[in-house]
Amino acid sequence: MNGQADADGGHDGKRAGRGRLREWGRRAAVAHGPERHTLLLIGKCTLAATLAWFTASDLLHAQSPAFAPFSAVLIMNVTVYQSIAQSLRYVAAVVTGVAVQAALGFLAGPDLLTFVLVAAIALTIGQWRALGAQRSQVATAAFFAFSTYVSATSNTERATQLGQIVLLVLIGCSLGLLVNVVLVPPLRYRSAEHGIRALAGALESLLADMGPAMRDGEFAEEHARHWRSQSGHAQALVNQARSGLQTAEESVPFNPRRLLPQHRGRTSFANYRAVLDALERAAYQLASLTRSLERWREEERDDAYRQFLRCYGTFLGSLEEIVRVLAQLDETHLREQARQLCELAEDMQEQRRTVTEQAESDGLPLGDPTRPYGVLVIEATRLTEEFQYTCDVLQTHVQG
Asked: For every residue of 21-58, which 3-state class applies, written as one string?
């Protein structure tokens, strides 16, 4: 019985694996998403490595042709800008490592003490932050150069082989850059949109939970704790959104596709950055609001303050409408979305004034730091300012 169960489980696992693979292939075929970008990167790396191997092995008859395809793949990045930056650092690291070995090798000879000195100096230089992610390549290149140096039989052959290592690295980097520039270099405009959409979606979910509960006056301490957890998740998405925006910005420099008519005028991400900055501040302000609600004792949420809570819940609902539009931000529909945001911003301003007037009408202790009312009114004002600024930025952008 156990054997049959294990066999059935194995078959189910294989079917599930095949299903996931088919779904991955379907997404790669129909959408410009990470799956298609992964396939494109694999194809470009394969082509660059093949060209580099053919050049090094078949044309130059190099003794260590693998240096060329290794270099071509190593510097292949999502953006042309990053490929150029990484190739410059990589070449600098390799040349430094080879130079260290050559200097010590010709001075001291190919013995163990020389290797110790080569390793120590190369690893020390490898701590230089300017080389970035390629710092470890200084020692790697030095070790390979030492191996090549030891296997050679004359100083002339040794110098030739060490120079060949540098030449192969230059060939590999050049072919990798050429393939990356010529073969569909991506302009990652969507990366900026996706990050902002994810962050706005998290804020929308939080506001969708908070608004109705506050309007009904029906929330307990566990609800406030859950909202605080949601606000923490939204804050965590800020870094992800910034990473996507940085990728989008880096996809433009040195990219020939930016010169095409459909991409002209779309090389600035200042408006996306302004929206992201506003959403980041809104996320932190909502986190402050949820902390205040978590500290609010349940016995204080009585009928005397129910009208204030109802107004505040309605205000949060107006923010939710704005965030819902931001969660669907799309460059092709930005004019319509900007107009819609301006209309929603007017309603938000009205609801914020209602919150302030209700607090004054109820005579709430706004100056008492142990009570949440002052914080709620202040955060309402700050959130209004941030979202109004976001709407104004987008409106200014679409107007030209």
From this structure: HHHHHHHHHHCCCHHHHHHHHHHHHHHHHHHHHHHHHH
Tell me what pLDDT residue 23 has. 56
Distance CA 387, CA 364 (A): 26
Q: Which residue has the tokens 């529909």?
A: 333
CA quadruple 310, 311, 316, 322: dihedral, nearest 10: 130
Cα–Cα separations (whole angstroms), residue 247 to 149, 232, 242, 269, 331: 41, 24, 9, 11, 17
Question: Mean pLDDT of residues grouped by 10 in the chain (400 residues)?
Answer: 53 58 53 63 89 93 89 81 84 93 87 91 91 90 90 86 92 89 63 78 88 77 81 83 74 56 52 80 84 65 71 90 84 81 91 88 75 82 87 76
The upper half-sphere exposure of residue 383, i.e. CA atoms within 13 Å in the direction of its Cβ, equals 30
- Residue tagged 């932050």 (tokens): 129
pTM value is 0.58
| DSSP calls for 167-216 | HHHHHHHHHHHHHHHHS-----HHHHHHHHHHHHHHHHHHHHHHHHHHHH
3-class DSSP state for residue 231?
helix
Which residues does 395 contact at the CB level (< 8 Å), separation at least 6?
A: 338, 339, 341, 342
AA identity, residue 157: E
Q: And the tokens for 84?
A: 């150029």
* Contacts (Cβ under 8 Å, ≥6 apart) of 295: 372
